[in-house]
Amino acid sequence: MNFSQYTTSSLEDWISSWYIDRNFQYPGDLNLRVIAKRHNIFINYKPFESHFTKFGKYKEIVLNSNLNKVTQREHFFHELCHAVRHVGKQTMMPKAFRELQERDAKYFTLYATMPYHMIKIYNLNDQELLLKWAEDFEVSYELCEERLEQIKRRSDCTKLFYSIN
User: Fold this and answer.
1) Does the residue 162 lie in any domain?
2) Number of structural domains, the chain?
């Protein structure tokens, strides 16, 4: 399997464009403090649930200090999505809208932790791919599995589309 049948989503393209415009080219460039600073967001670590808060112009992502670094990293990108793509207080919005934002944050996390322009250089047939992604992007093996499955599903859809037409 390779990326030739893979079609990126508009969210995926938006994230990769943002990174490329700011010269984030390699997994090691995805430094949380640098990304937060580019969005004028402070990062703090406290022993309670990770969340994003905005007070006027002050923006803060609080990461649960009791979590390991990999989980904190994944929480950071989830909260970053709320910071850059969502408005309003989730506690004040209808359940369906809250669920929509959470689904968006889930996909944002997949794409922002492992952006297409960085993963496309990897060999998808490599038996060690998931371990390499987990190490290079500093994310959980499970998140890497989810990303690879998403790539396979979308590639299969593209193949099916072209086989029908």
Assistant:
1) no
2) 1
pTM of the predicted model as reported, rounded to 2 decimal places: 0.89
pLDDT given for residue 164 in this prediction: 73
What pLDDT, on a 0 to 100 scale, did the predictor assign at position 147? 96
Which string of DSSP letters, residue by residue, matches 74-131?
A: HHHHHHHHHHHH--S-GGGS-HHHHHHHHHHHHHHHHHHHS-HHHHTTS-TT-TTHHH
Of 6, 23, 113, 14, whose CA–CA distance to 70 is shortest? 113
Q: Which domain holds residue 63?
A: 8-124
As a whole number of angstroms, the distance between CA 13 and CA 26 comes to 16
Cα separation, 160 vs 100, whole angstroms: 28
Q: 31: helix, coil or strand?
A: coil
SS3 68: coil
155 domain residue, yes or no:
no
At 48, give phi and psi (nearest 5°).
-150, 180
